[in-house]
Amino acid sequence: MMMHRALANFAIKRIDQACGPIVDKFLLLSGPRGSHGTGVTVADGGAAFGEAAWTAGAFHEDELRGLISISDPSAHEPAKVFLLVDPAWRRKGVALALIEAAKAWARDQGMQNFLMTCSRSDWPTRSLLERIGARLDLVFGEIVANVPIQYSKSEARTTSPPIWLSLINVSNANLRDQ
């Protein structure tokens, strides 16, 4: 494992295939098999690596407390991100640190954005995704977040005004013309 970034209570480290047993143990302890964190189904820890172009973990005292993986992007679709944080370590900055590390790696690869999903009722994750500038869309009962790699709070989250605003402007113009 290679050190990526150290923080106050945990360190972000790159994870490779050799860490499969650590990941398996983490997945077992972090909840039941199936949908984890961001709605990505994981059969086992090894499967998370099978499709991943990059994987990192948040470690505290050599124990894995959070995991993030990025798939290879296709020609037609951005990369997908799998994120899972140990329930005892949620709301402590682990997810944000993992996402920032993933964004740094994705930026180095020339990516413009990546996709994350969560349950429509997962308000903490939705709030985090909004804070990092993601555009959230409801797709088949799940939230699909398009996460920009570079985003500053001064940037607008959309490039055009909402459609309802243009309808009001057209309606007002028609009233003035009569």
Q: What is the total domain count?
A: 1
Please give the largest β-sheet.
8 strands, mixed
| Percentage of residues in strands | 25-35%
List segments where confidence is low: pLDDT < 50 over at least 5 consecutive residues: 1-7, 32-47, 154-175
Mean pLDDT: 74
Distance between the termini: 71 Å
CATH superfamily: Gcn5-related N-acetyltransferase (GNAT)
CATH architecture classification: 3-Layer(aba) Sandwich
Secondary-structure element order, N to C: EEHEEHEEEHEHEEH
The structure class reads alpha+beta
CATH topology: Aminopeptidase
Q: Give the overall form.
A: globular
Estimate the helix proportion, in percent. Answer: 25-40%
Number of helices: 5
| Count of β-strands | 10
Read across the widest sheet, the strand sequence of neighbours is 1-2-5-6-7-8-10-9
List the helices and strands and how they pair.
Blueprint: E1 2-6, E2 11-14, H1 20-29, E3 34-36, E4 40-42, H2 45-50, E5 52-60, E6 63-71, E7 79-85, H3 94-108, E8 113-119, H4 123-131, E9 135-139, E10 142-148, H5 163-177
Parallel strand pairs: 7-8
Antiparallel strand pairs: 1-2, 2-5, 3-4, 5-6, 6-7, 8-10, 9-10
